[in-house]
Design goal:
By secondary structure, the chain is mainly beta. Helix content is about 10%, strand content about 40%.
């Protein structure tokens, strides 16, 4: 019975982790950080053209799928960008902008990652932007 329990727990650990390296244990969790874009009345705005750039001005290809979390939600960054971030107290600048052709909403964010480069961490940046 004890052997069966150890085998069962081992299987759970193997299936719940994606990376085991240098004392790193990455989970299957997939992090992404959202911003809500609203108009001057506070109404969420959908269907905007989004551009996300790194500190050097290079455009990042962040997929903007419709979010089940409500209207006006856009992804700023997700775990697919961990390799470009440092695992240091300082962070990398990310610039987010969204436009409808006439108005624009823009924000600056700071992101870093953990020492194992498993997940991104938002250090600072707004949760809501107003399109003007």
């Amino acid at each position: 019975m004890k052997t069966l329990l150890i085998l069962f727990l081992s299987v759970i650990v193997l299936f719940s982790c994606s990376t085991v390296d240098e004392d790193c244990l990455c989970t299957e969790e997939y992090r992404f950080f959202l911003v809500t874009v609203v108009d001057t009345l506070g109404v969420p705005v959908d269907s905007l053209n989004v551009t996300i750039r790194d500190k050097d001005g290079d455009e990042l290809n962040v997929v903007q799928d419709p979010h089940p979390f409500g209207a006006g939600k856009y992804t700023v960054l997700n775990d697919s960008f961990t390799q470009m971030l440092c695992s240091c107290p300082t962070a990398e600048k990310i610039y987010f902008s969204a436009t409808d052709g006439n108005r624009i909403a823009a924000g600056e964010y700071l992101f870093n990652t953990d020492k194992c480069r498993c997940h991104i961490n938002k250090v600072s940046g707004p949760d809501t932007l107003v399109i003007r």
